Inverse folding.
């Protein structure tokens, strides 16, 4: 029976040791959590303040960008209208010339060709 009690004491002691280690680990974890709490709070405060500062600094930039976008849109619209008018003028001009083309060709066909100039020097 001595061997049996030896194993019981050995494994019983190991079980108690594991339980003690788990309790110590839990206690240490709680202490670390408590110690880290102020730093976590400071980090959260710092992050909130930084985000707030970035928002404040970026608001005028975003407003300026919006203004520039509207100005660019107005300018592009103005030039698009002018380009459209110019293209309309070109199309109208081509249509007019196409309409007048048969008349112009008839006039050219009816005109006599100019006489060729006689050479000044003869052989």
């Amino acid at each position: 029976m001595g061997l049996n009690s030896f194993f019981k004491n050995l494994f019983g002691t190991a079980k108690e040791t594991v339980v003690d280690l788990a309790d110590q680990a839990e206690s240490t974890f709680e202490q670390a959590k408590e110690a880290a709490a102020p730093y976590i709070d400071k980090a959260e405060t710092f992050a909130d303040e930084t985000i707030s500062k970035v928002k404040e600094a970026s608001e005028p930039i975003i407003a300026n960008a919006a203004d520039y976008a509207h100005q660019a849109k107005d300018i592009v619209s103005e030039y698009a209208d002018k380009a459209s008018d110019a293209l309309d003028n070109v199309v109208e001009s081509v249509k007019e010339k196409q309409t007048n083309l048969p008349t112009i060709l008839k006039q050219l066909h009816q005109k006599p060709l100019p006489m060729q100039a006689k050479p000044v020097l003869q052989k």
In short: The CA atoms of residues 17 and 110 lie 124 Å apart.
